[in-house]
Please model this.
Amino acid sequence: MRRRREFIAGLGSAAAWPVVARAQQALPVIGFLSGGLANPQADFLIAFRQGLANAGYIEGQNVTIEYRWADNQLGTLPELARDLISRQVAIIVASGAAATGIAARNATSSIPIVLVGGVDPVKYGFVDSLNQPGGNVTGVTFIMGELAGKRLGLLREMVPHVTRIAYLSGGSRTLTFEEESSNLLAAAAAMGRELIVITSVRGSDLDKAFATVIDRMAGALIVGIQPIMARYGEKILEFAAQQNIPAIYPSSSFVRNGGLMSYDAEAIGLYRLAGSQYVARILKGEKPGDLPVLQPTKFELVINLKTAKALGLTIPETLLATADEVIQ
Model:
């Protein structure tokens, strides 16, 4: 198995490695499992470690973290989860997609699992209820499919004259697609907009998907929440810029790289909370089944002024007033 990139702090010189390794064997080990890439999640990891530190756990001093990244190859997640279990981790943090939580849950029914991301834990059968999870799974989560209608409404406010909108999805065989697409279709009907659903944007399908957007004369885009979309983010951003198409994205990372706008839960806080209020408390002896699943109360609208100008858009004052961040 190809080893995933691992972040290990404070190891000192190479000569000191055997001594440090022996010392760390006695430390509790946290397994951090993600379906995505390491670099885009750097801010989340910083927040997670800050949360741990606030509760008295410092990576490399009194706790060890084993990181495993699927690099958007979600089929490798079960193997990565089993590898973490072989490392005798005390807790698994399942970050991001539902597939990550599923892989962790299928690998163990006894090791505590802390979910962090856009997953409906009840629908996926992770917990009995949000208030009383039961079992070995808990965490902080937001139901991303429910944000779809809000994103469509914000896009309509940005480009009120556009009546035909394309929805670029990362695949039709996932629950996230079913949730997001059904919410978008209902919202589009209520708003009098036509939604063009493109069910698979990956690999060789990408150019075909772009051609569909052009052929169907879509005037705007909604980029799906599926994790694989991050892999093709650069190409999607290039396409939107070349075709002069306004788009709304599922996370601010797209906007920081030139996308027009995004609307998402304030994820940094979720990762900090996962460290301080879940992982730390479980390490101190609390049971995951007794810790209620929390949902975010803060969501962020981010707008890129430079991109809006390039698209020839005048941003409504109402959007500017409600934006949490405006990138110049």
About this structure: The chain is about 40% helix and 20% strand. The chain has two domains: 14-142+266-298, 145-265+300-327. Residues 1-24 have pLDDT under 50 and may be disordered.
